[in-house]
Amino acid sequence: MQKLSFILVMILSLQSFAGSVYDLKVNAKPLFKVFVDQGVPAAALKRTFDFIDANAGKKVKVAAKDRSNQTKMSSKEITVRTDTIAIIDYTLPSDQNRLYVLHLKNGIVTKHHVAHGKGSGVRYATKFSNVDKTKMTSLGLYLAGSVYSGGHGASLNLHGVDKTNDQASARDIVMHGAPYVSDDFLKRTGRLGRSWGCPAISPILMKKMIGFLKDGGIVYAYHKDMNEMIAKGKNIQVVTTVQDDVDQDLDGEEETVRAKASSIKRK
To answer: Which of 143, 151, 154, 226 has the fewest Cβ atoms surrounding its Cβ within 10 A?
Structure first.
Protein backbone atom coordinates (compact mmCIF):
# COMPACT_ATOMS: atom_id res chain seq x y z
CA MET A 1 0.00 0.00 0.00
CA GLN A 2 2.83 2.37 0.87
CA LYS A 3 4.55 1.63 -2.44
CA LEU A 4 1.29 2.27 -4.33
CA SER A 5 0.84 5.60 -2.53
CA PHE A 6 4.38 6.65 -3.50
CA ILE A 7 3.69 5.79 -7.14
CA LEU A 8 0.47 7.81 -7.09
CA VAL A 9 2.29 10.79 -5.58
CA MET A 10 4.93 10.59 -8.31
CA ILE A 11 2.29 10.35 -11.05
CA LEU A 12 0.50 13.40 -9.69
CA SER A 13 3.81 15.26 -9.44
CA LEU A 14 4.74 14.44 -13.02
CA GLN A 15 1.32 15.52 -14.23
CA SER A 16 1.65 18.87 -12.45
CA PHE A 17 5.05 19.32 -14.12
CA ALA A 18 3.17 19.96 -17.35
CA GLY A 19 2.10 23.24 -15.77
CA SER A 20 5.10 24.47 -13.79
CA VAL A 21 8.06 22.91 -12.06
CA TYR A 22 7.24 25.19 -9.12
CA ASP A 23 4.06 23.11 -8.60
CA LEU A 24 5.98 19.87 -8.05
CA LYS A 25 5.84 18.46 -4.52
CA VAL A 26 7.58 15.74 -2.55
CA ASN A 27 5.57 14.44 0.43
CA ALA A 28 3.23 17.44 0.08
CA LYS A 29 6.17 19.88 0.33
CA PRO A 30 7.05 22.15 -2.62
CA LEU A 31 10.07 20.77 -4.47
CA PHE A 32 11.66 24.23 -4.51
CA LYS A 33 11.63 24.35 -0.70
CA VAL A 34 12.82 20.74 -0.48
CA PHE A 35 15.93 21.70 -2.43
CA VAL A 36 16.55 24.99 -0.60
CA ASP A 37 16.27 23.22 2.76
CA GLN A 38 19.13 20.97 1.62
CA GLY A 39 21.40 23.96 1.05
CA VAL A 40 20.83 24.75 -2.63
CA PRO A 41 21.07 28.55 -3.18
CA ALA A 42 17.55 29.88 -3.77
CA ALA A 43 18.62 32.41 -6.42
CA ALA A 44 20.40 29.74 -8.46
CA LEU A 45 17.48 27.36 -8.10
CA LYS A 46 15.04 30.03 -9.29
CA ARG A 47 17.14 30.63 -12.41
CA THR A 48 17.12 26.93 -13.31
CA PHE A 49 13.43 26.48 -12.50
CA ASP A 50 12.51 29.50 -14.64
CA PHE A 51 14.53 28.04 -17.51
CA ILE A 52 12.79 24.68 -17.13
CA ASP A 53 9.35 26.30 -17.12
CA ALA A 54 10.19 28.11 -20.35
CA ASN A 55 12.01 25.27 -22.13
CA ALA A 56 11.12 21.84 -20.73
CA GLY A 57 11.00 19.31 -23.56
CA LYS A 58 11.79 21.98 -26.16
CA LYS A 59 14.73 22.17 -28.55
CA VAL A 60 17.20 24.97 -27.80
CA LYS A 61 19.71 26.06 -30.44
CA VAL A 62 23.28 26.32 -29.15
CA ALA A 63 26.75 26.94 -30.54
CA ALA A 64 28.71 23.72 -30.99
CA LYS A 65 32.25 22.78 -32.02
CA ASP A 66 32.90 20.10 -34.59
CA ARG A 67 35.16 17.69 -32.68
CA SER A 68 36.54 16.34 -35.96
CA ASN A 69 37.68 19.87 -36.87
CA GLN A 70 38.70 21.89 -33.80
CA THR A 71 38.42 25.22 -35.60
CA LYS A 72 34.96 24.71 -37.08
CA MET A 73 31.93 26.02 -35.22
CA SER A 74 28.31 25.35 -36.08
CA SER A 75 25.00 25.14 -34.25
CA LYS A 76 22.86 22.29 -33.03
CA GLU A 77 19.56 21.79 -31.26
CA ILE A 78 19.39 20.14 -27.85
CA THR A 79 16.18 18.99 -26.21
CA VAL A 80 16.08 20.15 -22.58
CA ARG A 81 16.03 17.36 -19.99
CA THR A 82 14.24 17.90 -16.69
CA ASP A 83 15.02 14.84 -14.58
CA THR A 84 18.34 15.96 -13.06
CA ILE A 85 20.02 19.37 -12.86
CA ALA A 86 23.43 20.44 -11.56
CA ILE A 87 24.11 23.74 -9.77
CA ILE A 88 27.64 24.88 -8.98
CA ASP A 89 27.96 27.50 -6.26
CA TYR A 90 31.27 29.21 -7.02
CA THR A 91 30.67 31.49 -4.04
CA LEU A 92 32.20 28.68 -1.97
CA PRO A 93 35.91 27.75 -1.92
CA SER A 94 37.11 24.62 -3.68
CA ASP A 95 37.65 22.67 -0.46
CA GLN A 96 33.88 22.61 0.09
CA ASN A 97 31.27 20.51 -1.71
CA ARG A 98 29.85 23.17 -4.04
CA LEU A 99 28.39 21.02 -6.82
CA TYR A 100 24.75 20.19 -6.10
CA VAL A 101 23.13 17.40 -8.11
CA LEU A 102 19.35 17.74 -7.88
CA HIS A 103 16.98 14.88 -8.72
CA LEU A 104 13.59 16.36 -9.55
CA LYS A 105 11.65 13.11 -9.28
CA ASN A 106 12.41 12.47 -5.62
CA GLY A 107 13.85 15.72 -4.22
CA ILE A 108 17.22 14.18 -3.37
CA VAL A 109 20.32 16.41 -3.46
CA THR A 110 23.89 15.10 -3.43
CA LYS A 111 26.89 17.40 -2.94
CA HIS A 112 30.31 17.03 -4.51
CA HIS A 113 33.64 18.74 -5.19
CA VAL A 114 34.17 20.66 -8.43
CA ALA A 115 37.18 22.63 -9.67
CA HIS A 116 37.36 26.10 -11.19
CA GLY A 117 39.75 27.50 -13.77
CA LYS A 118 43.34 28.50 -12.98
CA GLY A 119 42.67 32.02 -14.24
CA SER A 120 39.72 32.40 -11.88
CA GLY A 121 41.60 32.17 -8.60
CA VAL A 122 43.28 29.79 -6.18
CA ARG A 123 41.09 28.43 -3.39
CA TYR A 124 38.27 30.79 -4.34
CA ALA A 125 36.98 31.63 -7.81
CA THR A 126 37.09 35.44 -7.92
CA LYS A 127 37.40 36.17 -11.65
CA PHE A 128 35.17 34.90 -14.44
CA SER A 129 35.39 35.28 -18.19
CA ASN A 130 33.89 34.16 -21.48
CA VAL A 131 37.11 34.90 -23.34
CA ASP A 132 39.33 32.21 -24.87
CA LYS A 133 42.78 31.49 -23.37
CA THR A 134 41.95 33.21 -20.06
CA LYS A 135 41.73 29.80 -18.34
CA MET A 136 38.83 31.30 -16.38
CA THR A 137 35.53 29.75 -15.44
CA SER A 138 32.41 31.19 -17.08
CA LEU A 139 29.29 31.81 -15.05
CA GLY A 140 25.86 31.11 -16.47
CA LEU A 141 23.54 28.36 -17.57
CA TYR A 142 24.74 25.50 -19.76
CA LEU A 143 23.12 22.62 -21.56
CA ALA A 144 25.10 19.40 -21.55
CA GLY A 145 25.52 17.88 -24.98
CA SER A 146 27.02 14.70 -26.30
CA VAL A 147 29.75 12.56 -24.78
CA TYR A 148 33.20 12.49 -26.37
CA SER A 149 36.53 10.95 -25.47
CA GLY A 150 39.22 13.56 -24.79
CA GLY A 151 42.41 13.90 -22.81
CA HIS A 152 40.49 13.20 -19.60
CA GLY A 153 38.52 10.26 -20.96
CA ALA A 154 34.75 10.36 -21.43
CA SER A 155 33.65 14.00 -21.11
CA LEU A 156 30.50 16.04 -21.61
CA ASN A 157 30.33 18.87 -24.13
CA LEU A 158 28.86 22.01 -22.52
CA HIS A 159 26.94 24.67 -24.44
CA GLY A 160 26.46 28.09 -22.83
CA VAL A 161 23.07 29.71 -23.25
CA ASP A 162 23.87 33.04 -21.53
CA LYS A 163 25.93 36.00 -22.75
CA THR A 164 28.44 35.26 -19.99
CA ASN A 165 29.19 31.74 -21.30
CA ASP A 166 28.07 31.52 -24.93
CA GLN A 167 31.68 30.94 -26.04
CA ALA A 168 32.01 27.79 -23.93
CA SER A 169 32.01 25.36 -26.83
CA ALA A 170 34.51 27.44 -28.81
CA ARG A 171 36.74 27.55 -25.71
CA ASP A 172 36.50 23.76 -25.21
CA ILE A 173 34.82 24.21 -21.84
CA VAL A 174 33.53 20.75 -20.92
CA MET A 175 32.72 18.71 -17.85
CA HIS A 176 35.43 16.11 -17.31
CA GLY A 177 36.94 13.98 -14.62
CA ALA A 178 40.36 14.85 -13.15
CA PRO A 179 42.54 13.29 -10.45
CA TYR A 180 43.13 16.72 -8.89
CA VAL A 181 39.47 16.70 -7.82
CA SER A 182 39.73 14.16 -5.01
CA ASP A 183 39.83 13.84 -1.24
CA ASP A 184 43.47 12.74 -1.47
CA PHE A 185 44.50 15.86 -3.40
CA LEU A 186 42.52 18.03 -1.00
CA LYS A 187 44.12 16.49 2.10
CA ARG A 188 47.57 16.89 0.60
CA THR A 189 47.25 20.51 -0.57
CA GLY A 190 44.32 22.11 1.28
CA ARG A 191 42.46 22.85 -1.94
CA LEU A 192 41.49 21.23 -5.20
CA GLY A 193 43.62 21.48 -8.30
CA ARG A 194 42.52 23.92 -10.97
CA SER A 195 41.37 23.27 -14.51
CA TRP A 196 41.75 25.52 -17.54
CA GLY A 197 38.20 26.80 -17.11
CA CYS A 198 36.27 23.52 -17.10
CA PRO A 199 34.06 22.38 -14.21
CA ALA A 200 36.24 19.35 -13.51
CA ILE A 201 34.96 16.69 -11.11
CA SER A 202 36.19 13.36 -9.75
CA PRO A 203 36.58 10.60 -12.36
CA ILE A 204 34.23 8.34 -10.39
CA LEU A 205 31.49 10.98 -10.26
CA MET A 206 32.00 11.73 -13.96
CA LYS A 207 30.65 8.31 -14.90
CA LYS A 208 27.41 9.08 -13.05
CA MET A 209 27.11 12.63 -14.37
CA ILE A 210 27.19 11.42 -17.95
CA GLY A 211 24.05 9.41 -17.30
CA PHE A 212 22.42 12.26 -15.38
CA LEU A 213 23.13 15.07 -17.84
CA LYS A 214 24.11 13.97 -21.36
CA ASP A 215 22.00 15.25 -24.25
CA GLY A 216 20.09 18.06 -22.57
CA GLY A 217 20.86 18.22 -18.85
CA ILE A 218 21.05 21.64 -17.21
CA VAL A 219 24.23 22.87 -15.49
CA TYR A 220 24.21 26.28 -13.82
CA ALA A 221 27.48 27.90 -12.72
CA TYR A 222 26.49 30.45 -10.09
CA HIS A 223 28.00 33.07 -7.80
CA LYS A 224 25.93 35.01 -5.28
CA ASP A 225 27.56 38.29 -6.34
CA MET A 226 27.05 37.61 -10.06
CA ASN A 227 24.90 40.69 -10.57
CA GLU A 228 27.17 42.95 -8.50
CA MET A 229 30.56 42.11 -9.96
CA ILE A 230 32.89 44.76 -11.29
CA ALA A 231 33.52 44.48 -15.02
CA LYS A 232 37.21 44.74 -15.86
CA GLY A 233 38.58 44.54 -19.37
CA LYS A 234 36.83 42.51 -22.03
CA ASN A 235 34.07 40.37 -20.54
CA ILE A 236 35.84 39.80 -17.22
CA GLN A 237 33.85 39.83 -13.98
CA VAL A 238 35.73 40.33 -10.73
CA VAL A 239 34.61 39.62 -7.17
CA THR A 240 36.20 42.19 -4.86
CA THR A 241 34.92 40.91 -1.50
CA VAL A 242 37.08 37.79 -1.15
CA GLN A 243 40.68 37.46 0.03
CA ASP A 244 42.17 34.54 -1.90
CA ASP A 245 45.29 32.45 -1.31
CA VAL A 246 48.63 33.22 -2.97
CA ASP A 247 48.74 31.81 -6.50
CA GLN A 248 50.97 28.78 -6.77
CA ASP A 249 50.79 25.97 -9.31
CA LEU A 250 50.61 22.60 -7.58
CA ASP A 251 51.92 19.35 -8.92
CA GLY A 252 49.10 17.38 -10.49
CA GLU A 253 46.72 20.19 -11.46
CA GLU A 254 45.95 21.04 -15.08
CA GLU A 255 48.70 23.61 -15.56
CA THR A 256 51.55 21.38 -14.39
CA VAL A 257 50.22 18.23 -16.07
CA ARG A 258 49.96 19.98 -19.43
CA ALA A 259 53.37 21.61 -19.01
CA LYS A 260 54.97 18.22 -18.40
CA ALA A 261 53.17 16.68 -21.38
CA SER A 262 54.31 19.53 -23.60
CA SER A 263 57.89 19.15 -22.38
CA ILE A 264 57.88 15.42 -23.16
CA LYS A 265 56.60 16.11 -26.69
CA ARG A 266 59.43 18.53 -27.35
CA LYS A 267 62.11 16.00 -26.39
So the answer is: 151
